[in-house]
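[agent] plan:
  1. take the single chain provided in the ticket
  2. run structure prediction with default settings
  3. attach structure tokens to the ticket
  4. add a short note for the reviewer (M.T.)
[agent] executing step 1
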Amino acid sequence: MIHPSAIIHPSAEIAEDVTIGPFSIVGEEVKIASGTVVGSHVVIDRWTEIGEDNQIFQFASIGAAPQDLKYQGEETFLKIGNRNRIREFVTLNRGTPGGGGITTIGDDNLFMAYSHVAHDCLVGEQVILANGATLAGHVEVENFAILGGLVAVHQFCRIGSHTMISGGAMVSQDILPYTVAQGDRAKMMGLNLVGLKRRGLSKETIRGIKQAYRLLFRAGLRMEEAIQQIESDLDITPELQHFIDFIRNSQRGIAR
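[agent] step 2 finished; step 3 output follows
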């Protein structure tokens, strides 16, 4: 299953049914689990762990050293979950000592061509990065988020779950869960109602999110006042609690 022209470091641990295409390189202490397919001309650098049933297309760069001037070759990691699709020319970097030392990618994500995940990012599950979408260092992307083509996310920003960000947006502050954002600098344009329905959220849950959104952005209240009213007036579902916690834990502020 490994092409004769591929170069595999002796310390790499590769499951028996992994496929590795022509001219690909697998570095030191790399781990690749069962069912993963690596195309041709792929470079998988040291200290990278890849789960089961991933597809890595030609010319991708996986686990390269972080693009951080402070990085001095320390042992840091990239961990990739299961069933991800990593398309042509995608770049996924390892972590840095100052950021926890690990870049983490969950399950069932799609990284389209030329998308980039920098050091110390945390990408959840069923996330889509369209062509050319870029995450700077220390970015967190929650489950089911969709980033359109050429979206760029500033370091330390968070992208909430079930969010859709329109192509070309420049994200410099946190984007709330369940919303649609666009523009330079990206601002929320409303709720991602189509996405919420597709994900099977109940009508009651969606109604509560709508009411919370109105209190936050259309009632003329300060943010903390709006949150207090949400907590006192609405039935706090797990989704709504996440909405509130996301705001209270924001470090860069919410893109309003």
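[agent] step 4 note for reviewer: The first helix runs from residue 193 to 198.
[agent] ticket updated
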